[in-house]
Structure formats: structure tokens, C-alpha cells
# Entry
Amino acid sequence: MKKLITAASATVLAIALPLTAQAQAPGEESAVPDTSCQYDCLIAIMQDHMQALSERNFARLPLAADVVFTENNVVLPLGQGLWRTVAGVDDNGLVVADETTGHAAWFGAVRENQHSAFYAVRIHVEDGLIDEIETVVHRQTSLPAPFGNPVNMPHFAEFAEVLPEEERRPRERMLAIADSYFDTVELNDGQVFAPFSEDCSRLENGILTTAVREGEQQSAAAIAAGCEAQFRLGLYKINKRIRRDLPLVDEQRGVVVASGFFDHANEFDRYLLTNGNEMRTALKWPNSITLIEAFRIRDAEIQRIEATFTYVPYFMHNPFWGEAAPMPRFAADPQACNDACLSGLAGSVATAMVGNRWQDVNWGEKVGYSENSVGIRVGESIWRTINAIDESPLVVADQETGKAVWIGRIEEHGQPAWAAFTIAADGNAVGSVDATIPRSNYGPPYVEPVSATDFAVLPANRRTSREDMAASASDFMAAISDNGPAPRAVAADCEWLVNGMAVGDCTSPFGGPVLSRVERTRDRELLAIDEERGLAVVKFFEDLPATDGTGYPLTYQVVELYRFEAGKITRVEAFTSELPYGMRPR
# Structure
């Protein structure tokens, strides 16, 4: 009888449980691996992807209905970004694949408009369809990063060689070896965790960075040649954190491919090598590089390395690793925090940044903090690099929006930059801080700040109502998006400045070539209005797709101030931060 009861109970349970509750590894849809696309199939699909890219025709690809495409860690509709500007793809790219995980990767160079760029892509194939496309595109900018000759870019021949069985290692060991490379370069202090071959070489954005090149004096290779020798010296101590994923192992060719970020906190601007020599950081402010990197492992040693990487905002997020939390929103409460209260909160945040005294700020219960549209914890990033702030900043507070905007000069290890901090109140405490930091390293338009503009209180007969200022600010943002004509509220003698640089009058750009490059302004927000001084501050994003055949796709995060006198905009001051194309606000 006991056996009969047990059998009956099992039958009831089997009927009650959903059919999807099968036995397999967590995260796997089936206990049987997907064999619909093996090694040669993955290589062929990757080659088809590159051909489709060269033709700007993604429709020819076998795409899953929910395919996710990113360019420099920004989710875009497939067909945007480089897909609209590519002018050619080199035919000698490095291709690897992993039939166990369904990934394939390609490294090489592309041509975009009138310039070349380095390019790496990872795809994931399931049931014969591409459901993930992750790309890193490195364009030549004013930022200090390797940039070799992309024309017929040479790759290490070893990546294409099939290893003899006796020189291979199991995929688990290969993953551990590749991961030990990142352990070595993270907080690099001379301790080496990774096994390197004696002839280990590294290629970064088309430049051999482990061998001295003729006429070069300042590179890492000029200080020390070879992979291990550079790490023994502690050359890469600026890498505070290496966030990474290793999705691909090509066992027959001994290749591991990783994607991730090197977070350069730059909490110090000089440091000592293990031989006692002093090094100085190239950049004085927090930044990250995003990369796709390949390691060739032979006889359990890292033999060759090839990486494509580019700068992104500090601590940027990879969408394939999960969704980033949005910035919290707070309802304005003038009874809890009026204009004076908001100005005080803004000043307390900026003041506390000097010396990283974040504990001095009156924080709310749940706080949001972002820099250049990337969420990060308070006490990191510029909190550790700012050594001075503007003694006479411009602060625009508005109890109706519950926000205050602090605009002025900051110094990071002595290097000046503009800053626009938007503080939102949670009751009488700081609920969120959104920082926009324009820096000289991105080039013009930019003038090193001395101090923020001082706007005097207007006489009553020269003031503009709040409603009219808000409407005209909205019209101005819309006119940028539509490229004209200039809004009616713009005065004939209005002057426009961008990052402190006078760029001309406020009317002639509309309908002209400069604003024609702006595809749209989006995520527009009114931050604060001060009727007494005639000031309105807004925030928006400008997308420049570079489809006019010049430049490269990018997005600007913009904090823009309008000065009104007698109903007319007499001055525009914009503060912009360059972001990867299509990046959204947090």
C-alpha cells in the first residue's frame, strides 16, 4: 500500500508541475546543447555579418526577433551607428568561434566616411539565428590611445594556426589563464599571476605595444619590452578595476576572447614603478576603456594578445550583463526645500567633493548619482580626483522643479574643467546628483574656465515670466532638432557659448551646416528657472549620426543655460560632454 500511495503522489505532482520544469543546468533552456550551428557554421555567419556590414544591409543576416545590438556598450536599433557610416571592411580580419557557447568574434579594421577605424565584434548564435551583436569601434580622436595603420592590418599568424593536441589545454584551464591576465593588469604592482611565453607580444588597435618602434620615446614598450617585463615594472597601476566576461574559447586554435572594461580611476596622477622611476598619468580624470580582447594560449602560456578598445565614460555599463538602475525621481516639495535650501544643497555637494568628504552631505534615504550619464557610487570617480572648485559658481535653484544647478570651474589634480551638477532634493536632503563634466581633452569648442558667468538681478520691467521662459527654452531645443529657423524669442545680438568658447551669434547656426549634423535632440528636461535673473537651465541629448559623410557618430549630453531680458534670449551657454552614439540618460 505504501508503494501505491507513493506512486500515486508522484503522478499527481507530475501533473501539477508545469511542463517547463525539466532537469537541466540553471540558466539553460535544455539539457541537450544546441548543435544547430557548429564551428564552421559560426565562422560562416560571422563572415556573412562582416559582408552585410560592408553593404550596410543587416537584412541579409539570420536574425532572431529579439536580437540585441550594441556599439561601444550602447543599445541601438540594428542598422544605426557604424552601419550607417561604414565605407568598407578589410578582408583579412581575425575570426574565431566557440561551438560550445555559440559565440564567434572578428577583429580588424573598417573604413568610416573619410577615415579608418579599428573594429571588433562578438556575436551569439542560437538555433541558427544571431541574437547578440556586441561591437567595439575605436576611432582616432584627441584622446591618448594607440592607433596604428588600419590598412591591411596585420594579425599574429599564430591566431590562425590549429594547435597540435599535445599543445592544447582544456577550456576551463584556458579560461583560468586568460582571467589571470586581467588579475595581473588590475592594480598592477609588479606581481604577475599569468603565465607568459618568453616571446609574448600584444597588438592594441593595430600597434605592437610590447616592442619598441623607431623614434618612439614615451610608449610602454620604450620603457620595457615584452608582456611580463611591463607587468613586473607595474606600468599599469592606474587600472583600479577590470570588469570582464570571457564568453568564447576556440579550443582547436587555443584562443580565448574576453570583453569588458578597464576602469582608470586616476585617483593619483603620478606613481612609482618597481624600479623606483616615476610615472605620470596621461589623463588626470576618471575614464574607462571598453574592449574586446583575444588571447592565444599555447602550452599553458599566453603567447599572443590582440585587443580593440576605445574610451567610454568612467564605469560605463555593459547591457549584456544586466540592466542598469535608473536615476530615482523625487517630487518637488517647496515646503521642505525652497530656493535657498536647494542652493545650499548644491553648494554642499560641490564643496564636499574636494577631499572626498561625501559624509558631510545631507543625503536622502535612497540616492542616485551619475557622471556623464553613468551611474556610480558616491565617493568614487571625481570625488577622488577633484582638488579645487569654483569659489564663485553660478547656482540656479528652482523650488518648483525641486532642483538646483551648480555651474563652474573644477580642478582635477590641478587640471581645470567645467562642471554642471544638477542636484534634486528628497525632502530637505540630497536625493540625486547628475554631473556633466566637459574637459579640454575632447578638443574644441572649449575654453579653460576661470569662473562661471555672473548674472545680475534684472529690474522688474526687464524680466520674463516663468511660463514664457519655459516655452521659449522648449522652442530653442526643438529648433536645434529641426535645424531652424531660429526661435522668435532669440534677440538679434544674442551670443552663444559652448564650454566657455564664443561660437557666434544665436540665429545664424539655424538652417546652417553645423546644426544640420544634429539628427535630433531628445530626453529634454527643464531643470531650473530663476525669474529675477532671467535664467532658464535645461538638459538634453544631441545625436550626431555622421551620415553627412564627415566625422563619426556621437552623442552630446548638454546642460544649456538661457539668459532672458524683456522676453528675449540674449545669451546661451552650453556645457557638453561627448558620449558614445545613442547613449541614454540614467
Summary: The domain at 339-579 is CATH 3.10.450.50 (Nuclear Transport Factor 2; Chain: A,). The chain is about 15% helix and 40% strand. The radius of gyration is 27 Å. Residues 1-17 have pLDDT under 50 and may be disordered.
